[in-house]
Design brief:
40% strand, 4 helices, mainly beta, nine-stranded mixed β-sheet
């Protein structure tokens, strides 16, 4: 379904009655995304009325503009993440507890869908699966412990059986297309950057210590690369979702997250510091980058989002300037990573990326938690896609605990039983429907409104010039219909000037003229309520 959305200024005006509607910068349109039945994810527990036909594939982790089809419809490439997954209890085996995730459809292959914007919504009816170097479809399962990119999670099926790992698994989150038609994607596990051909076959893979800076290994688990873009000069740029947690010590102290620049021709890399406003968030790690898009070689659009300190959700797009930012690749403070230092301690040595708010998605009616895909269609149109997690949520049932959260429980693999705070619990875990719709939005920049013209009486204009140190004599020649101004003369206020209010609307120009030191000025004069009014800026310029 296509939905017209109020502009930010209209929404604000409805609430505050103070901002004129013409001040809007963008017009937003939301399109519900529907998925062809053949692209749904097979789910063993599907039945009539319950995920009938499978789970709806979520192509909302990243987006890039593909072009227009023969019908003139906009098309985008959009990528899934690792696949359907749900929260799980902690998993205990042989006396050891680990974090876990439920993968309802463990055979799922991360994929790139083609999104077509129609008059009544957006559709995905074609997809490209990702494949390893040998052409075998990969999965989104986590990597085994000890591997670069391992998250420490156990992958479980719906019966909470351990289904193992996949060292080729990817949790894809960013997408761009290079000049040769190859896809570039980033992932949250490694974090990795991969290059694939047009059919999704992996050609190259970059990892921390293997083509990427080693420090990236300290990403918070499942908070690796979240955004990727390619600049006009061919540089591949990827953004870490959150601050790094170096040696498990900096997620509560770091004041920036990292943007990585990779030259695919030389393999050289650079890194820049994207500042986190610590005053907005209760913890630095609550600031999350959703995606990035290169406007030019030095300018990015960045989605910054997360739960603020006041518990409200924020989703904003910033314009970010990297032209003066410091390459922090080889920098440390007292032998430690920069994440240990405060912004004040870094200010003499590090120039952060400069960011400026471009638009607040929530001002335009955005309600989704995750804005995860960002690109531009043209210089006036921005596209944003949301991730609704394949339309599923974890459902926890415990008669003894109405506020049950499955992550509060421990599951013993040997006995098949649950405990909570050391006490046996009777728990059932399943998945339910996430009713948040999958959508792609476009933000069309509107024409900048013409500045409102102010008109001032000539008497008040002369008084203002006098306050600025310039004096003029004023005479009115009714026979010649002229206002005669003489530089250096004096004008004595009549006391009626305060009744001559500044106006924004005038009618037809009169026959009167302004003559300054014998020269007629080309400034229309309007006769209103017995007084002569002129364009305030034009008069100020003439008397400057």
């Amino acid at each position: 379904m296509k939905k017209r959305v109020f502009t930010a200024a209209l929404l604000t005006a409805m609430v505050l009655q103070s901002i004129p509607a013409f001040a809007a910068e963008y017009e937003a349109t939301a399109y519900d995304v529907s998925i062809a039945d053949e692209l749904k994810v097979p789910f063993a527990d599907s039945k009539e009325g319950y995920f009938e036909g499978g789970l709806v594939t979520g192509f909302g982790s990243a987006v890039t503009f593909k072009g227009y089809n023969e019908a003139g419809e906009m098309q985008f490439y959009a990528v899934t993440d690792r696949g359907p997954n749900a929260d799980a209890p902690k998993y205990e085996k042989d006396g050891t507890q680990t974090e876990a995730k439920i993968f309802p459809c463990p055979e799922f292959t991360p994929s790139i869908g083609i999104v077509t914007i129609k008059d009544n919504g957006a559709v995905v009816d074609e997809a490209i699966t990702l494949k390893d170097a040998e052409g075998n479809e990969i999965s989104g399962l986590p990597l085994e412990p000890g591997q670069v990119g391992a998250t420490g999670e156990r992958a479980l099926d719906m019966q909470l059986n351990d289904i193992g790992y996949d060292n080729e698994g990817l949790d894809t989150e960013g997408i761009a297309v290079d000049a040769d038609g190859n896809f570039w994607l980033c992932d949250e596990y490694g974090p990795f950057i991969v290059k694939t051909d047009a059919n999704g076959k992996i050609l190259e893979k970059y990892a921390p210590g293997e083509g990427l800076p080693e420090i990236l290994q300290y990403r918070i688990p499942n908070r690796g690369f979240e955004g990727l873009t390619i600049t006009p000069n061919g540089t591949v740029m990827a953004s870490v979702q959150s601050v790094l947690d170096v040696n498990d010590e900096t997620d509560d102290t770091a004041c920036f997250t990292r943007i990585v620049a990779l030259d695919p021709e030389t393999g050289d890399t650079k890194m820049y510091a994207y500042p986190v406003d610590l005053s907005q968030y209760s913890a630095p790690s609550n600031c999350k980058i959703g995606d990035i898009y290169a406007v030019d070689d030095d300018t990015l659009l960045v989605i910054e989002q997360g739960k603020l300190a006041d518990k409200t959700m924020s989703n904003k797009i910033y314009q970010v300037d990297l032209s003066k930012a410091t390459d922090i690749s080889d920098m440390t403070v007292d032998g430690k990573a920069l994440e240990y230092a405060s912004a004040e301690e870094l200010q003499d040595d590090v120039v952060f990326a400069e960011k400026e708010l471009l638009l607040d998605l929530r001002d335009y009616g955005w309600t989704a938690e995750k804005a995860e895909g960002l690109c531009m269609v043209d210089e006036n149109t921005i596209a944003v896609i949301n991730d609704n997690d394949f339309g599923i949520v974890t459902v926890t049932e415990d008669a003894a605990n109405e506020d049950a959260d499955i992550t509060d429980y421990v599951y013993d693999a040997a006995t098949g039983t649950f405990t909570k705070d050391g006490t046996a619990a009777d728990v059932k875990v399943s998945i339910g429907e996430n009713t948040e719709p999958a959508q792609i939005w476009t933000f069309q920049k509107t024409e900048e409104p013409a500045a409102e013209t102010s008109y001032i009486s000539i008497r008040n204009g002369v008084l203002q010039a006098q306050e600025g140190g310039k004096t003029y004599g004023v005479d009115f020649d009714s026979e010649k219909q002229q206002v005669v101004l003489t530089t250096g003369g004096t004008y004595t206020a009549t006391g009626k000037e305060d009744t001559q209010k500044t106006l924004t609307e005038v009618g037809e120009a009169s026959a009167w003229k302004i003559v300054l030191d014998g020269t007629a000025l080309d400034i229309p004069v309007y006769h209103i309520n017995g007084y002569n009014y002129v364009d305030q800026q034009a008069l100020e310029a003439a008397l400057a």
